[in-house]
Write a structure and sequence with these properties.
- The chain is of the alpha/beta class.
- It has nine helices and seven strands; from the N terminus they run H-E-H-E-H-E-H-E-H-E-H-E-H-H-H-E.
- The chain is globular.
- The protein starts with a helix and ends in a 7-residue tail after the last strand.
C-alpha cells in the first residue's frame, strides 16, 4: 500500500515563492516549508521577507528582487538558486491590481500589471525550467483569479492578465510536461490580503461576495494550504494544464 503522507512529502525539494512577503504567497511559503521543502521567498520588501525566514527557520532564504524587471530575470534566477540549488517548485504569487476602470487605464498602469502578473511567471519559469528538465521533476503553480473567467468593474488590466494566465498555464503544460514538469494554476476567490484590502474594507461588499459563494463565506488564508500542497507534490503528478478554483464555489453559482 502507498503511504498517503508520502504523496505530500516535499523533503529534499527546493521551492521558490514570489510575492512571499505577504498574503497568499507568504502562506504558500509556510505550507511548503512545513511539508519539508527548503523555501526561497522572493519579494521587494526585505523586512517582510526577513520575518518570513525567521518564522520558517534555517530551511528558508530570501531574495529581494522585482520580478517585473524582465531585464533582471537571469540575475534573479541565479540568486534564487544560490542558497539551496535551483528550485524544483516555483509558485508565482506576486501580483498587482491597479483597479482602474477601462476609461481610466494608463499605459503605465497597463504595462506594470502585465509585467508582474504575466511576464514574470513566464520568463522566471523559462529561466528555471532547464534545471527541472535535468532533474526530470518540476512543479509550476501560477496564480489565476476569479477574473480569469469573470469581468469585474475596474479590473480590465488585471482581468486581461489573469485570463492570459489560464492560457499560459495550458501552454506551459504542453511545452514542459513531457519532462515531468507539471504546470497548473490556483484561482483564489476573495481572501483577506493586501491585494484585496479595498474589498474587505467595505463590509457590505465583503458580505455580498460571501453570499455569492456556494459555501457562504469568503476564504481564509488556511484554505489555500491543501490546494498549494497538492499541486506542488507527487499527489498531483498526473494533473497538468489545469486551473483549480479555490473560491468556495463562487464561479459555480
Amino acid at each position: 500500500m502507498i503511504d498517503p503522507n508520502s504523496l505530500f512529502d516535499l523533503s529534499g525539494k527546493v521551492a521558490c515563492v514570489t510575492g512571499a512577503s505577504s498574503g497568499l504567497g507568504r502562506r504558500a511559503a509556510l505550507v511548503l516549508a512545513e511539508a519539508g521543502a527548503r523555501v526561497v521567498g522572493v519579494a521587494r520588501r526585505g523586512e517582510a521577507l526577513d520575518d518570513l525566514c525567521h518564522e520558517i527557520g534555517p530551511p528558508a532564504a530570501a531574495v529581494i528582487a522585482d520580478v517585473a524587471d524582465r531585464d533582471g530575470i537571469a540575475d534573479v534566477a541565479a540568486a534564487i538558486a544560490a542558497p539551496f540549488g535551483s528550485p524544483d517548485i516555483v509558485v508565482h504569487a506576486a501580483g498587482l491590481n491597479t483597479r482602474e476602470a477601462a476609461d481610466d487605464v494608463t499605459p503605465d498602469g497597463w504595462d506594470k500589471t502585465i509585467a508582474i502578473n504575466l511576464n514574470a511567471p513566464f520568463f522566471l519559469s523559462q529561466a528555471l525550467v532547464p534545471a527541472m528538465k535535468e532533474n526530470r521533476w518540476g512543479r509550476i503553480v501560477n496564480f489565476a483569479s476569479l477574473q480569469t473567467t469573470r469581468a469585474f468593474p475596474g479590473g480590465i488590466a488585471y482581468g486581461a492578465t489573469k485570463g492570459a494566465i489560464g492560457q499560459l498555464t495550458r501552454a506551459m503544460a504542453e511545452s514542459w510536461s513531457p519532462f515531468n514538469i507539471t504546470a497548473n494554476a490556483i484561482g483564489p476567490g476573495f481572501f483577506p490580503t493586501e491585494l484585496t484590502a479595498a474589498v474587505f474594507d467595505d463590509a457590505d461588499r465583503a458580505a455580498r461576495n460571501a453570499a455569492q459563494t456556494c459555501i457562504g463565506r469568503n476564504g481564509g488564508v488556511e484554505d489555500i494550504d491543501g490546494p498549494i500542497l497538492f499541486l506542488c507534490s507527487d499527489a498531483s503528478s498526473y494533473v497538468t494544464g489545469q486551473v483549480l478554483m479555490v473560491d468556495g464555489g463562487f464561479t459555480a453559482k
